Amino acid sequence: MLSCPDRYFSAYVNQNYLELITKTVREVDESLTSVVLSDSEESAENRAPQQMRLPSLPEVKSCVRALHPRYTFADFMIGPSNILAQSACRSMSFLDDSIGPCLYINSSTGLGKTHLTHAIAHQILDSEPMVRMHYLTAQQFASEMVQNIKSNAMDGFKRKYQEQCDILLVEDMQSLTGKKKTQEELNEVLDCLIKSGKRVVMTGNQTPRELNGIDDDFRSRMASGLVTSIQKPDYETRRRIVEKKAEQQNVALPQEYVDFLASRVKGDVRKIESTVIAIGARAALNNNLIDDKLIDEVVKFLTGSENQLSSRAISDLVGRQFKVSFDDLQSKSRKRTVAFPRQVAMYLCRKHTEETLADIGKVFRRDHSTVMHAIKVVSSLNRRDASVSQQLKLLSDKVRNL
């Protein structure tokens, strides 16, 4: 009798391996004529108290911090700002040799470093459960080292990370600033793992070169593999993030509000998620009604005035001045009454925001070359036509007061 953890496992083994197992058992002992699989529905006394370890498998298990269930590769929104980091992490999770044994990811807070390291851990636990993985923060490594020094157990500590580890994930490397002894110990671990072909993934809020209070040898070791960064997401990525977060929170957001939030709420992904959660909470108190007033109140409360000056806000202002709707500005219409306000809006967006030509173009459903052409046209009119120049000055003053 072979014990299985559940009936699904039992059914899989029965379908794929039972015949081979039975044949092999008979070759060992002809008196054993059949193999029976039991699952969790069998009585406890008929099952072994725990699964036994095969002789070829390592005794040491992975040591992994609590993982967020949604921080997986499937839920990570890929864009130009993070595609290299995401690709490198996937390679690490599949134990691919294409990028080498060492990876360092840096970014400001809330852009996805932790999401990617959790995704690596999830993938390895799912596909390679016997790989010995240690996942912790640099501060936790330092605290564990201090405890082992106090208890005279540094030999075991060294074995754990140097000999009993196949992949090491360490977050927040900037917390080791000024901690010389911890840097020396972790540097020794990195050296041992990298030379033996094991994997190391590190994250920090700065590149190794930018970190202060770090030993030069340790800095060199951190940068010995691929060093990549995650930038703030562009408009299109923000839009997909809004859609994903709304789906996860069961918030029914019309497309016009998705576009508005993507253009208005910038910065880190956490801010976007917080905005969507707040919209869902307020809508629940308002018979699930989501309207302009609710959206504006939430965005103003959570993002403040610094993020209010956006291409969408400027477009709304220009639309009111020329008496055309935002849908008209996004349309394919080439009528002078629509095309000119659209070009003026693009010109003002470029002048008063830090958004790229591509970001501005996406707001109007155009490409960057169209935005560039609009800016040239309006700039030329501004120099040659006094009435247009006066109109642009008036609009610029109103934009500054948004």
Gyration radius, in Å: 29 Å
Largest sheet: 6 strands, parallel
How many domains? The number is: 4
Shape: elongated
From the structure provided, what is the oligomeric state, counting identical versus distinct chains? Answer: single chain
- The ordered H/E elements are EHHEEHEHEHHEHEHEHHHHHHHHHH
**CATH second-level architecture of the largest domain:** 3-Layer(aba) Sandwich
The percentage helix is: 40-55%
Give a verbal description of the structure:
- The chain is α/β, with parallel strands linked by helices and 402 residues long.
- It contains 18 helices and eight strands.
- The protein has helices at 7-16, 18-28, 83-93, 113-127, 138-150, 154-162, 180-195, 216-222, 235-248, 255-264, 269-284, 292-303, 311-322, 326-330, 336-352, 357-363, 368-384, 386-400; strands spanning 2-3, 37-38, 63-64, 102-106, 133-137, 167-171, 199-204, 226-229.
- The N and C termini lie far apart (75 Å).
